[in-house]
Amino acid sequence: MSKKRRNHSAAFKGSVALEAIKGEQTLSELSVRFGIHPTQIQQWKRQLVEGSKDIFGASEKERKHIESEVKDLHAKIGQLTMERDFLSRTLGR
Asked: Cα torsion for 38, 42, 45, 49, to the nearest 10°?
């Protein structure tokens, strides 16, 4: 029989990667402690370091995108309000 693959949660992966980044223990010590191959720990550590750029940069991109959407929506609201007022005056008489 073959072994089942273990699926680890994102929280577990993050905690293991943070321990590896701290550097208080070697990869082999972390491997024994968490029961994971050192190569896997190194991959998670690399993913965490590379992904950290997106964590801090994504919010700025999102904020700019949301601001532009709000600006467009305000313009559309103004246009529709003017059209409604014009039509109500024209048709009301």
From this structure: 170
pLDDT score for 22: 94
Q: Is residue 57 part of a domain?
A: yes
pTM over 0.70: no
- 8-58: pLDDT as tens digits: 999 999 999 999 999 999 999 999 999 999 999 999 999 999 888 777 766
Nearest-CA neighbor of 39 among 28, 52, 50?
A: 28
Half-sphere exposure of 80 (CA within 13 A, CB side): 6
Q: How many domains, the chain? A: 1
**CA 18 – CA 51 distance, rounded (Å):** 13
CB 38 within 8 A of CB 31: yes
Q: Is residue 4 part of a domain?
A: no
Instruction: Quote helix, strand, coil % in the chain, to nearest 5.
Output: 80, 0, 20
